[in-house]
Amino acid sequence: MLKKRIIGVITVLDGWAVQSIGYKKYLPIGRPNIIAENLDRWGVDEILIICIDRTINKAGPDKETLNSLSYKSLSTPICYGGGISTLRDAVSVINNGVERLLLDSIIEKNSIDEIFKISEKLGSQSLIASLPTKLNSGKIDFINYKNIYKNKDEKMILNLLKSSVFSEALIIDLENEGIPQSFNKELIEKINIPIPIIAFGGISDDYQVKDILKNKNVSAVAIGNFLNYKEHAVQKIRDNTKLNFLRKSKYRKILNRYKSS
Amino acid sequence: MKKRVSIIDYGSGNWRSIQNSFKRIGCSCKVYRDERSVLESDLLVLPGVGAFKPAMKSIKEKRIDKIIFNHVENGKTLLGICLGMQLLGISSSENGETRGLGLINSKVTSIGDQEWHIGWNTIELIKKDKLFISSNNKDYYFNHSYAYQDDGDHVLSITKFKDIEFASIIRSKNVIGVQFHPEKSQDSGDSLLHSIIESL
Asked: CA-to-CA distance for B179 and B196, rounded, in angstroms?
């Protein structure tokens, strides 16, 4: 059986892992590669690195962070988002040891050709669409996170999701991101998109994870700082939720146990 | 004697992750830069993140196919990972029919319209193979939307997804393919790569 996933998210600002509160306030918490190493050791199903300043500053992918991750030799799949605006950016990130790409501001009308080029070269299985959302009078608004206003290209976004260029969508609860136990479940209940959903923003506790993952359209939950400051939090979620579609808790064996061959 | 491993970099592969995984199990490896580095290798790894057609085009343009064929003809082990496994087949229907390397007598097809098999899933051995016995019923990380069908003598294990089954490990003598990513499958993946290195 294909398991649903618990994804550890590391939000990066200016090379530092930060605790983000609604993408408005940030607190530095450490080096991203050290946090990634912990998540890897604790056995999360994927690690998602989101470098939030790279796209807005038109700085391209954060090569320094990617290189520092690569030196850690992590054995957990890595997804990366931030500053990817061309096929060249996308290929360079994959070549740095990343399995999947999270595309954010490139999802706009004048970049559609580039998205198709990336999907054709790297395959749609490698691409996740980043969709910050808000609930507005019972309706879902896609938000352009460059200016935090409603994205006017809603029809274009929906058409893009139907065209098989992305394999999953990261649905971000923008209003509740960084606030414990606050993810608005209505977002995933009301959204109507043809690809699996990764739920993110304000997910911190076992009961929420259980509740969200029971939705058949949800393939994963993404959890930020709530996983990072509690040791073995991911193991506890797995043990407490007792969901048969999650991987079982496993404590890693001693590292470097293999002799040189 | 230390085993020599080379990874082919054909432009869109995640060779760095694979290099790191061999480093984790105490085995150094080179990334393909020239023919000589491959000739000296006990194990050649064909990685893969990407789509079939551009990968095959790149392999042909860089004449890597000849190097792969020579390596296999010399009786040395070839390991294809994910897309690298698919490239070993006769052809793939991804973005139009494209010919593969033809080392495995099977075709790669879509697992379904708007279907992606992403995440951790179990492999079930359907044939005894000493190399993979310890992998049976373990979870590995998959990320693909095309696969070999589960028929043919070369299929060692299958994986179930919704109402379909596909080949997750294939082997034809010294040519091995895994649909999952051992380099990103934590302890299970490291253990499998270690077994392959020990068998060389």
From this structure: 15
B183 in catalytic set: yes
As for how many domains chain A has, the answer is: 1
DSSP state for residue B134 in the 8-state scheme: G
C-alpha distances (whole Å) from A210 to each of A181, A213, A215, A230, B69 are 12, 5, 9, 19, 49
Scanning every residue of chain B, which has its alpha carbon at the shortest distance from the alpha carbon of A1? B121
Write the pLDDT tens digit of every residue in A87-103: 999 999 998 889 999 99
Order of all β-strands in the sheet with B146-148: B98-99, B91-92, B107-110, B146-148
Query: Could you tell me which of A8, A53, A12, A3 has the C-alpha nearest to residue A30?
Result: A12
Contact pairs from chain A to chain B, CB under 8 Å = 142
* Residue A85 in domain: yes
A120: pLDDT strictly greater than 50? yes
Count other Cβ atoms within 10 Å, centred on residue B172: 17
pLDDT in tens, B107-139: 999 999 889 999 999 999 999 999 999 999 999
Asked if residue A185 is part of any domain, the answer here is yes
Q: Is the pLDDT of residue B23 over 70?
A: yes
Give residue A260's pLDDT band: very low, low, confident or very high (50, 70, 90).
Answer: very low
A254 in contact with chain B, both atoms CB, cutoff 8 A:
no
Does A75 fall in a domain?
A: yes
d(CA B192, CA B135): 7
3-state secondary structure of B141: strand
| Contact call for residues B138 and B127 (beta carbons, < 8 A) | no
Residue B76 has pLDDT above 90, yes or no: yes
Nearest CB neighbour to A253, from listed B2, B27, B187: B187
Q: Looking at this protein, which amino acid is placed at residue B10? A: Y
Let me know if residue A256 belongs to a domain: no
Domain of A132 in residue numbering reads as 5-241
Residue A251 has pLDDT above 80, yes or no: no
B9 chain-A contacts, CB cut-off 8 A: 95
Q: Which domains does chain B have, with CATH numbers?
A: 5-199 (3.40.50.880)
Annotate B97-114 with b (16+ C-beta within 10 A) or e (fewer): ebebbebbebbbbebeee
Q: Confirm whether B181 is a catalytic residue.
A: yes
CATH value at residue A19: 3.20.20.70
Give the residue on B whose Cα is nearest the Cα of A251: B187
pLDDT of A61-79, one tens digit each?
999 999 999 889 999 999 9
Tokens of A178: 């960084």
Sort A211 into a burial class: Cβ within 10 Å, 0-12 / 13-18 / 19+: middle
Contact B114 A194 (CB under 8 A): yes
